Amino acid sequence: MERRAVYRNKVLPWLLIGPQLILVLVFFYWPTSQALYWAFTLEQPWGGGNLWAGLDNFLYIFRDSRYWATVLRSAFYALAATGISMFVALTLASFVDRSLKGTKIFQSVFIWPYAIAAPAAGVAFRFIFSPEAGLVGGINELWPGIWDPSTNGIQALAMVIICHAWLGIGYNFVFFLAALQMIPRSINEAGAMDGARPLRRMLDLQLPLIAPTAFFLLIMNIISSFTDSFGLIDTMTEGGPVGQTEVMVYKIYVDGFKGLDYSGAAAQSIVLMLLVIGLTFIQFKWVERRVHYN
Amino acid sequence: MKTNWLLGAALTASALALMASPASAATKFEFWYGLSGDLSEKIQEMCSRFNASQADYEIVCVSQENYENNLQNTIAAFRANKQPTVTQISDGGVVDLMLSGAFLPVRQLMEENGYTIDWSNYNSGVASYFSTSTGELLAMPFNNSTAMFYYNTDALKAVGFEGLPATWEEVEDVARKMKAAGYECPIAMDPTGQWQWWEQFSAIHNVPIATNGNGFGGLDAEVTFNQGKFVEQLTFYKKMFDEGLMVHKSKAAGQTANEAFIAGDCQMASSSIADHGTFGTQAKGKWDVAMLPIWAGTERQNSLVGGAALWTLKGKSAEEYKGAAAFYNFIATPEQAQHWSTITGYIPVTNTGFEAMKAAGFYDAAPYKGRELAIQSLTYTPAGEYTRGVRLGNFGAVRVEIQKAMQSVIFDGADPKVALDEAAARSNEILRKFEQTYKGQQLP
To answer: What is the pTM of this model?
Structure first.
């Protein structure tokens, strides 16, 4: 039986989705078309005129070894932050799922980090990780000079990845917990009766059954680490020592607004947009197939 | 009953609304500036003095926190046709603005509104940055400064140095003595401070940063900061860092160079003369200021001006331009100019202004003694081909390349020549892209 809502009034559906359509048009399609126009021309910052440049802007950034370094860095950032975030969230969710005493409290508390705005978390973490004043900086008392994210690019990148992962744990936790709780208790009990220990039950029973959710979270986390990392990086390292925490979205900001290279930044944002669209496409194609609606 | 009550309320509300908006004759116009904190408050004070001094115009002054934000916000506002009448643009944003045709030259503005200003009275070192290549001022100089070297005199005395160092050799020697005497941080240095550690160095040693007379001659200039003295200087900085004579101080490291100097953690720092006032009120211990050090045997040239000038943007009404002209006239009066140079460390931008303050004994005693050295530094020689400023397109992006090169040498131990070569190659690409964007246009 077809489950579709049919409106007799032809205008009503349009009115109902009107506000959403207007938002999408104004905040997505209009800026994107501007960015496309700028990406194919040379745009003067003060708006005096455009010079047609064809694919020159794209070739300029693809020829740039620093751009590819940024792309690789963004990919590493995405995988590392996603991996840490999902692993920790899954661990916490599986502990909470065992319904021990007091889990109701933990259930609410673990979600809180998600509510914190990235810039606020960035400022707080910058203080915590500061080499001279912070908690982590205390390690410099034992081994002087070992922790200094202001000069060491690898440490700066690690710091930002950890913070991004921390912020995402709450979101992943909610989904993982829901997925775990959807598994019928009988399966777990059957496994326990057959002598399977908790870790084996997790690996052989629970993980396969929460795979669709895990895949969904993987895509959402990766997309978020490409686009939402800006707030953290801007407040914590501003692109880091020698540009070593510059990810794609931050490079767009630096090139466009600080470097006044509007065309180059537009070209980069088109590339980033295509990348995220590609990821979303993968998610829809793969996840939809494996989710079973009862 | 209800309708009567509602009607009565509506009538009262509309009457109040009509009464509450007084017929204001003052034309409002906006001034966006890029200073924050203490200096921002001083500007607000300046604006209220202007508003109090006359009733025809009202200036609304809005802080944008820093020069970069101000430039970005002004551009965005201009594109949306919501720009301010007056905006404070610093040296880095000048070339884009000049080629955009989005501004009204200040000489034209003052002439059209009936004010006669003696333009030759403006300090040549200050004016050249904001003038055409033939010397005509395009913007109103306002808060201008130059880079100086600050010394903690207690520490100098502790190592037995008389007076203040004048050469890099002396600075290195003093730093080494301080380190041996137990001072943890002889010199506070932030590699992103390329204005005072790199650009000023090029000017006072008379080495060009770019061809075409530092870019003044045309858009086809190429950078030259990867040659000769520049490589030696970067190698020198690296050596000082390695020996612990220069210590990295920046916001990312937890304490900026100025904060370190104020707290007495570091004994020497290089910063704008504008900070002279802040140091005066906040620094611990005895300190003094001197001109930037040169290598022994070089003939010192004038240093580059810093700070910003006030630009008038196109697209506003004639009334607002009258207001802007009145404001420029106001800040150019000797009393206001002196007041501005008193409450901040910024230098007087006119020759007569400086002479008047000197004659009045302004620079004879603390806390203002030492500021005249900034004028001395700016006017050491008449502005020459390499010392009248830097006019490169997208200079902000070029500066980032220089900063990255300095950082990679100092933090990651890269070879100075290699790092500078890479920075120069990338900077030239930036300049070529800029040239193409403004194809066929000439620098004013």
So the answer is: 0.83
